[in-house]
Amino acid sequence: MPNRSFRPRFKPFRLRTPTGNVLLVLSLGHANVFFSDGMLDERVGLLGHLMECPFCKCQTSAHSKRCNSCGKAIPPGQYLLEESGVVDAALDDTSAAVPGVVRTQARYRFARLGDRFIAFLLDTVFLFGVFAVVDAWVFTRWGSVEGGEMRLPTASLLIAVTLNATVFFLYGWLLEAVWGATLGKAMVGIRVVGTPQGRSFYACAIRNVLRIVDGLGFYLVGTVVAACSAARQRVGDMYARTAVIEESFGSGVRIAAIVLWIASLAGAGWAVPRICSVNRFVPPLYLSQVIIRVGRSEGLAYFQVGSLAVHIQIASKSSGS
User: Looking at the structure, do residues 153 and 210 belong to the same domain, yes or no?
Assistant: First the structure.
């Protein structure tokens, strides 16, 4: 008669064969079932990934919400932080027996939304100086000035928007992929972490491209999604499998970031008037229709976009009688 009280216990771990092949082992009581890599689908393959409980230091499934040993709730994003190397990854049963291996647990904390917003503002101010130089060069080359009026055709606006978007993307992509932080993040003290391969250029590219989605409604979408996420991930972080954590950068890094930030604004203040003082107007071959007009006449300053115009009265000193 079968024993109805028998409950099989599954215990996954990985073994490496002498030939270098990796086997996923499922232990069912006294019986072991071996699976070579590729025999299981992605969902079952997750059984082979383990993480360490930060409380009892026992191994548990990488996607468990509670530890199987102590029953405490696993901090959100624990597996992601182990993959990125912020905290030490859990050691499997085969490596746990190796002498000299020390198991430690680093302390971490996800960056607050307020800190991320301040870092975004600092980056925006830095990029404003870069955009000012780029736009001044574009508008003086493909825009025209006649009398007291500046005229910007469609071509100049498209070129300016394209260059600004390219600079914005490259700034976030390259700095986050190489150093994990933009100038604003370095000054605030936060860093981007990623997958086991590190902050790959591919992951950081996805993270920054999806700013198009997160930035809808003046970043309302990204703010709401991050606020509802346990790991404070916006849409770009979720698809790129990245997270933003607090990081204590050295004083040298912060000073360098501040110097570059100030240099951007000072350089823009010096370069823009000199660029605008030289007339390099080249009539565009295509899209030459004037879209924006800015100027002043007869005590009025005006800004016109298409058929929509805004007029501002300029106060003048009245002559005494």
Answer: yes
Neighbours of 188 (CB within 10 A): 27
b/e per residue 136-165 (b: at least 16 CB within 10 A):
bbbbbbbbbeeeeebbbbbbbbbbbeebbe
Mean pLDDT by runs of 10 across the 321 residues of the chain is 50 45 46 43 45 71 73 68 53 37 51 95 96 94 82 93 97 94 96 73 94 94 93 92 90 94 96 87 86 83 84 64 41
Choose among 2, 36, 33: nearest CA to 17.
36
Asked if residues 236 and 211 have their Cβ atoms less than 8 Å apart, the reply is yes
CA distances 79 to 15, 154, 280, 297, Å, are 21, 49, 56, 64
Count of the separate structural domains present in the chain: 2
The pairing of beta strand 190-193 with beta strand 243-246? antiparallel
pTM of the model: 0.68
Whether residues 78 and 49 fall in one domain: yes
143 and 252 together in one domain: yes
Residues 30 and 132 in one domain: no
Q: How many CB atoms lie within 10 A of CB 31?
A: 8
CA dihedral 47, 52, 57, 60 (to 10 degrees): -20
- In this structure, the answer to whether residues 134 and 249 fall within a common structural domain is yes
Q: 255 lies in a domain?
A: yes
Give the contacts of 7 (CB within 8 A, at least 6 positions apart): none
Together in a domain, 214 and 246: yes
Domain containing 85 equals: 14-96
